[in-house]
Specification:
It contains 14 helices and 14 strands. With 443 residues, it is an alpha+beta fold. It folds into 2 domains: 292 residues, no CATH class; 135 residues, no CATH class.
Length: 443
């Protein structure tokens, strides 16, 4: 379970990273071309692409993704997904998943604490007939709350700002409510908490909030029809009321200065805005589709960490025991991953070099053919059947490729004579995946 969760987290992290980079590259040119409102829609690409990862793969049919998009194109676009491996190390997956979950929980608690501290700092909120709230502790107009957003204004709102400035400020805050920006911010915060390990996510959060404010400015100017210079003055007064400095050493440029500079640009025409909305929506849908089309085939087996198998054997050549691993030899069992070879070389009494290669693997069916069982029957120490494919060579020439299917913990026998009857090779094999055998082999 931990393997699957960790693999999914890594994949959506890579997809989210690619989406952020793409939006970061396109947001400024798109704003210049089609306006702030349409370019703000580009941020939908990030959560939409994550949804594409979670969607199940479509079954093969005429309407499947392979018929609409070239597989080569899909692999080219989704090449960064190769950094999100489909495998996970069994021993590390639970610890890594737990660490990820703890980090996300700490980030979520921190954001909730900051929100609660802000709400408490406002003190008592007095509701007015127009639906807004007043607070004597509020330094500037704001919208608080995600599920029930409210406009909170300073108690001296009427005396601090002129009538025209109050109209613009209320129009700006009500535009946030109409656009459901508070709920959108809550979703963005959840993504930041989930991907707390990704430093680019914090940059995306700040740029997303900036683009949100700029889009809200553009919506207010388009609907109210006020002079941009007057709106810029009102904007500056609300921002400066809460801060005495507008520049910080780690920022190249304060967001307020960027917003005021953007207000000087002419607003795009209605046709350009609609074109921008259409292009942004097309990009979001296309990106989501490509991510969905690149999902692995769920009908194919998912690669997992190879299980360990403990192997013991006795090797006889012409009736003489030449090598013992495990059993009562004092040597521990040999540990092998499923599918990995065990290669052995041993000279006979006549000086002929004998070679033996054994490759154990877990069999998909636990049933074991009766022909492979010794007279005493199988001994079930574990839940699996184990197939051991062997290759026996004499003087560097392969003379046989036998295989034996064993119940877990059972001993099987392979006996082969070379075509010239120069030697008879007998191999007694035992394999198990039981924890006790694996632990004893490690020790």
């Amino acid at each position: 379970m931990a393997n699957e969760v960790l693999t999914l987290l890594v994949r959506i992290s890579v997809v989210g990273l690619v989406g952020i980079v793409l939006v970061g590259v396109l947001r400024v040119p798109a704003r210049r071309a089609v306006g702030a409102e349409a370019s703000y829609w580009l941020w939908l690409l990030v959560p939409a692409s994550l949804i594409g990862v979670l969607l199940p793969r479509a079954p093969p049919c005429l309407c499947g993704p392979e018929t609409l998009v070239s597989p080569l194109l899909i692999r080219g676009i989704t090449a960064p997904l190769d950094f999100a491996p489909m495998t996970a190390v069994s021993n590390l997956a639970p610890a890594a998943t737990l660490l990820w979950a703890l980090g996300a929980a700490v980030a979520l608690v921190y954001f909730a604490y900051c929100q609660q501290r802000l709400r408490r700092s406002l003190g008592f909120l007095q509701r007015l007939p127009d639906g807004t709230y007043r607070s004597s502790a509020a330094k500037q107009p704001m919208v608080i709350g995600a599920w029930r957003p409210r406009i909170v204004l300073p108690s001296d709102f009427e005396t601090r700002y002129s009538e025209s400035e109050r109209t613009l400020i209320l129009a700006h805050e009500r535009a946030h409510l109409a656009r459901q920006d508070a709920l959108t911010n809550a979703i963005a915060v959840a993504l930041v908490c989930l991907f707390w390990l990704n430093p680019l996510m914090y940059w995306a959060w700040s740029r997303f909030r900036f683009d949100q404010e700029v889009a809200c400015d553009a919506a207010v100017l388009r609907r109210v029809g006020v002079a941009r210079q007057r709106y810029a003055r009102a904007l500056a007064r609300t921002q400066l009321a809460a801060r005495t400095a507008i520049a910080f050493g780690w920022r190249r440029r304060h967001p307020l200065l960027e917003r005021v500079a953007l207000l000087r640009r002419p607003a795009p025409s209605r046709s350009r805005r609609r074109t921008g909305y259409s292009l942004a929506l097309l990009l979001v849908l296309s990106g989501t589709y490509v991510v969905w089309a690149a999902q692995p085939d769920l009908s194919a087996p998912i690669l997992e960490a190879k299980p360990l198998i403990a192997i013991s054997l006795r090797w006889f050549i012409d009736g003489e025991e030449v090598l013992t691993i495990g059993h009562e030899s004092g040597r521990p069992d040999r540990l092998l991953h499923s599918g990995d070879p065990l290669r052995l070389v041993m000279p006979s009494r006549a000086g002929v070099i004998h070679g033996l290669t054994c490759i154990p693997s877990l069999h998909p069916d636990d049933s074991v053919p009766a022909a492979t069982l010794p007279p005493q029957g199988p001994t079930h120490e574990g839940p699996h059947a184990i197939l051991i494919a062997c290759q026996i060579s004499l003087a560097e020439k392969v003379i046989a490729k036998p295989a034996v299917l064993l119940a877990d913990g059972q001993t099987g026998v392979i006996e082969v004579g070379d075509p010239g009857r120069k030697a008879v090779v007998r191999i007694e094999l035992n394999a198990s995946t039981s924890p006790s055998r694996l632990k004893a082999a490690r020790d």
